């Protein structure tokens, strides 16, 4: 889980920095509200990473990652993590519908394994600059 672990460490570093800024600007001015909003955003990102990590099946079929929550397979941890978003209810959940994954920009490859009749769809998010 290299990518997810790296993301978690980066978010924890940003949380520590935001917490420090919020404590330094305890006067109640606009800067404290900005620091508090940043802290809240980073904590929400850490929550997203933790929720996604609980549904991760690494080395699915020896080369992919599978989401237990939706049953979809992904090429890598980056693609897997990016399909976890805030849903309509405001809760963090994974995007399960193939159509929505396509709308979000995920590319799909189909792999047919020996002794199986139907190909499996494997999603990946293209790397963008």
Report on this structure.
The chain starts with a helix and ends in a 5-residue tail after the last strand. It has a five-stranded mixed sheet. It has a two-stranded antiparallel sheet with strand order 4-5. The mean pLDDT is 87. The chain is built from four helices and seven strands. Helix 1 (2-24) packs antiparallel against helix 2 (30-54). Helix content is 47%, strand content 21%. Strand 4 (84-86) and strand 5 form a beta hairpin.
Topology:
Layout: H1 2-24, H2 30-54, E1 56-60, E2 64-67, E3 73-74, H3 77-82, E4 84-86, E5 92-94, H4 98-103, E6 107-111, E7 120-124
Parallel strand pairs: 3-7
Antiparallel strand pairs: 1-2, 2-3, 4-5, 6-7
- Describe the strand arrangement of the main beta sheet, using strand numbers: 1-2-3-7-6
Determine the strand fraction and express it as a percent band. Answer: 15-25%
Going by helix content, strand content and strand pairing, the class is alpha+beta
Mean of pLDDT: 87
Which ranges are low-confidence, i.e. pLDDT below 50, for 5 or more consecutive residues? none
| Number of DSSP strand runs | 7
Largest sheet: 5 strands, mixed
Order of helices and strands: HHEEEHEEHEE
Helix content: 40-55%
Taken from the alpha-carbon principal axes, the silhouette is: elongated
Distance between the termini: 23 Å
Number of helices: 4
Radius of gyration: 18 Å
